[in-house]
Amino acid sequence: MKPISEPIFTSGFPLGSSAGLVAAFEWLGQPYRLTRVDMLGEMREAPYKRLNGRVETPVLITDEGRVLTETMAIALWLEARDTERRISFEPGTPEADRMHQYIAFLNTGFTGAFFSMWVALEADDASEEERETLRKFGRSFVAKRHEQLEAMIGDSPYLLGDKPTLADAVFAGVARWVEFHKAIDPRDYPRILALRQRIEADPAFRFAVAIEDGKPAIGSGAMKGLVPLEDVLRDTGAALAA
Ligand SMILES: N[C@@H](CCC(=O)N[C@@H](CS)C(=O)NCC(=O)O)C(=O)O
């Protein structure tokens, strides 16, 4: 497999959870590239399905040309490269364990709570009554996970202290779904709201959202270019076939 110059990460739109890990790439500061993925369009076509058979973002093409899927796997890949510990902690320390605990909770319970809201939106064959049932359960799942996260958050500005880590990145990519689905009233969870506002005002996250929206964006300089998805699919397809 041909080595490539920088890892390439997906920016899924609209509202992809990948925006959080794009911010993490920015905070990490090591060279990377991005490819925008229309999750309502090209993601559902055959070439993308060869990249990720589960038809999801995020996907990372590593600097060795390997395809890595799943948020947690990509977060761990970033952690392994974060030798300066800008967005993570020394493996084996209590802080690292707690960061993994947060990431696991956020990527499973917290993210999964929105599932029935997405189904209500996307299921073509659902009746309005079925959609309302899905939304009703979705609102209660999202509220429960917000209550739990609100209780987990301490007094520090970020989830694990005074600087953002991979846990904050995974959180921020998903937490903004609340407004889109009108799932809960964010003001009922003041710690979560304050954390969101802090991260969403951060230049790294603003950069991620601008890329997602296809708008001009100035980042930290670590992002070395946008690669058209068709180029990524062509190159990885060739590598996978080789
Ligand atoms: N288990 C996956 C889930 C990722 C996920 O839920 N991705 C969403 C976008 S944020 C997706 O691609 N959904 C497919 C769809 O919308 O049809 C992970 O953690 O990476």
TrEMBL record:
The record, for InterPro entries, names: Glutathione-S-Trfase_C-like (IPR010987), Glutathione-S-Trfase_C_sf (IPR036282), Glutathione_S-Trfase (IPR040079), Glutathione_S-Trfase_N (IPR004045), GST_C (IPR004046), Thioredoxin-like_sf (IPR036249)
**Keywords for this entry?**
Transferase
Query: Per its UniProt record, what PROSITE patterns does this chain match?
Result: GST_CTER, GST_NTER
In terms of Pfam families, this protein maps to: GST_C_3, GST_N_2
Q: Which residues form a coiled coil?
A: none
Q: Does the keyword Transferase apply?
A: yes
Keyword field contains Calcium: no
Query: Which residue spans traverse the membrane?
Result: none
* Highest taxon, organism lineage: Bacteria
Q: What is this protein called?
A: Glutathione S-transferase
Organism of origin:
Mesorhizobium hungaricum
